[in-house]
Amino acid sequence: xxxxxxxxxxxxxxxxxxxxxxxxxxxxxxxxxxxxxxxxxxxxxxxxxxxxxxxxxxxxxxxxxxxxxxxxxxxxxxxxxxxxxxxxxxxxxxxxxxxxxxxxxxxxxxxxxxxxxxxxxxxxxxxxxxxxxxxxxxxxxxxxxxxxxxxxxxxxxxxxxxxxxxxxxxxxxxxxxxxxxxxxxxxxxxxxxxxxxxxxxxxxxxxxxxxxxxxxxxxxxxxxxxxxxxxxxxxxxxxxxxxxxxxxxxxxxxxxxxxxxxxxxxxxxxxxxxxxxxxxxxxxxxxxxxxxxxxxxxxxx
Length: 301
Hints:
Blueprint: H1 11-23, E1 29-35, H2 45-48, E2 55-61, H3 68-80, E3 84-87, H4 96-117, E4 124-129, H5 135-143, E5 161-166, E6 169-173, H6 185-194, H7 204-218, H8 220-227, H9 236-247, H10 258-270
Helix pairs in contact: 6-7, 7-8, 7-9, 7-10, 9-10
């Protein structure tokens, strides 16, 4: 597969970009949700460049699947760039108290405005991000129920959904938005490996081999220990074949079932069975910060 073979921009994402612009004027603050395993690669500038002067909070979702030390490094990086960022574990709810605490100042300002104008001005927030990053799960955690549709695959939310969190706050759940064309191969591989892109759009064999290559370079012992392999090979095709044999994924002719092996490797990574992994750190490459303001102030990523 070439570096431009992942093209994913269905019609509802184009509509979502228009809905994002239309609804921004209705909200007081925006939660930008990034995947804690790939904070840089899951940051879509076509979303964050539209936020203007809105108050922005970054949420690093799926923190339970990411390396805790790397997540701390990312939090410090955002703070150094004037953006409040918080890790959230959407399964256990760890980190939600910090989110609610950060919202309190917005609530106080809006309630004061309501008393002065006698208008019903409930504070409103919008939750944005790429597909399958956990936006709807976050809103459900905030609401304490399941008013927003969720799923394990990208594209479950197809249109904006207003959700009442309580009698004091409303949240707008937005469909995930990806790039019209993913031209950076590593970024495309990371998005595919973490589940932001439907598997029908990419070649699982290539993505799993990219992932194995990452492990061989960064955490070879995890691969050896998890799959019971004595030595990892430089060639990931050989490694994938060995894993397939170890797992017993063989065809009727006795050959390794490559597709089944690839799906298995990606599934185990996404479920965290290979360990808590962060695929990128702030120090990996120079990034131009366009942050402005400080905590609670308008900011761009």
